[in-house]
Amino acid sequence: MPTLPGDQRLSAATLDFVWRQWSQLGIGHSTTERDPWAQDPEALLIFSLPIARTDPRLFDELLDWLRLNGRLISARRLSTLQPLADSERRLIQAAVAWGEAHATPPRTATSPRKAGGSPEPVFAGIRVSTPDPIFLAHGFSKPQSAPSGKSTSPDLSSPIGLAFSLRELLGLASSRAEIIRFLLTTDQRVSRAATIADAAGYTKRNVNETLSALVAAGLVERTAQGNSAAYSLDRERWLTFLDRDTCPLDRAWPSIYRALSAIARWQVDTGDQELSDYLRASGAYDVIHATRNDVETAGIRVRSTRRAADAAGDLDQITNELLALLSAVPKHVSGTAGSPTLR
C-alpha cells in the first residue's frame, strides 16, 4: 500500500500531528508547541513513515532525523511493537539503514534481504530517474537525496522527550527505560506485568525479570493482588531524581496508532470502490471489531453494535474520539499517592 491518506479529514489530522510531534523531537521544522505528554518513539516512527509517503519533505526530514538520532531508536521495539506487513517492515528497515549509512561516522547497517519483483514507489506519482540505492536494496523506488542537515537532538527535558531521557540514563538495550516511562506516566496507581509488557514492547518474561530487579533495587514497588502482583513507583522521588516539576501525560500510543492506521487502510481500500451502503457498513463493522481491543486500551468505549447498518456511524464516532486524543489534554497525572486502581 503506497500511502495511508484515508479520507481528507483523517489524512490532514494525522499528517499535522506527525509534523507536530517530530518538530518537537528535533526534525528541521520550527515549532513553538510543547505537548504535555511523553511520546513512544518507535510507535510514532512506525505510524509516521506510511503517512510521510504523502509528503516527501516530511519523509526526507525523518530520514535526516534518523541520521542524527538513530542511535536512540530501539530496533528490537521496532520489530516487536506490532505485526507488520512485509512492505511496512521493509520500509522501516530501509529508513533506519539510510540513517545509519549517512551518520557521521556511519553506523553499522544490517544487510537487507534482497527484495524480488519490481520496486515499489515510495511516493505515488513521482517519477524516479536516479533511485536511492539503499531503498532500492529493500525493494523501494525513491528519489536519491542528500541529508538536509536540519535535524537537532531531542530536548531531553521536554515532556515529549521523556523516553530519550530515560534511555540515556538507563540504557537502550533492556526494558528498564520503557518500564519506568510507563509507570511514571500512567494514570493508574498500580499496573500488572502484562499491561506493562504490552506498553513496553517486550515479552512478559523479560519484563517480569526486569521488574524483579527494579524491585530488588528499591526503584519499583510490588503489591500483592490476589494470586498476582502489581507494580508502581514513587513519582515524587523519580521527578526529583529526573529534575522535573511534573509528570508528562500518558497516552496508549501503540494502540492509538494501530487503530488509526487500520481505519485509514480501510478507507483507502474502499475509497474508490462503488460499494452499497450495506457493504460499506459491513466493512465498518469488521473494522470496529478488529480494532476494538486497541480502541478500548486507548480509553474509548466501544458500544456493542448489534446492526451492521449502525457501524458506519459508530466507526466515525470512534475515529473522532481517536483524533481527539491527538490534541486533547486529559487530567494531569500528579506525583502524589492516591487510592490504587489496577490496570
Would you kindly provide a written description of the structure presented here, covering whatever features stand out?
This protein has 14 helices and 5 strands. The chain is mainly alpha-helical and 343 residues long. It has 3 domains: 8-141, no CATH class; 174-242, Arc Repressor Mutant, subunit A; 253-324. The strands form 2 sheets. A 3-stranded antiparallel beta sheet has the order 3-5-4. The longest helix has 21 residues, at 277-297. The two termini are 36 Å apart.
Features:
two-stranded parallel sheet, three-stranded antiparallel sheet, 5 strands, Arc Repressor Mutant, subunit A, mainly alpha, 14 helices, globular
Computed CA radius of gyration, to the nearest angstrom: 21 Å
State which percent range the strand residues make up. under 5%
Order of helices and strands: HHHHHEHEHHEHHEEHHHH
How is the biggest beta sheet arranged?
3 strands, antiparallel
Helix fraction, binned, reads 40-55%
CA-to-CA gap between the ends? 36 Å
The poorly predicted ranges are 1-6, 331-343
Coarse morphology: globular
Number of domains: 3
Give the mean pLDDT: 89
- Sheet/helix structural class: mainly alpha
Spatial strand sequence of the major β-sheet: 3-5-4
Count of discrete alpha- or pi-helical segments spanning 4 or more residues: 14
| E-strand count | 5
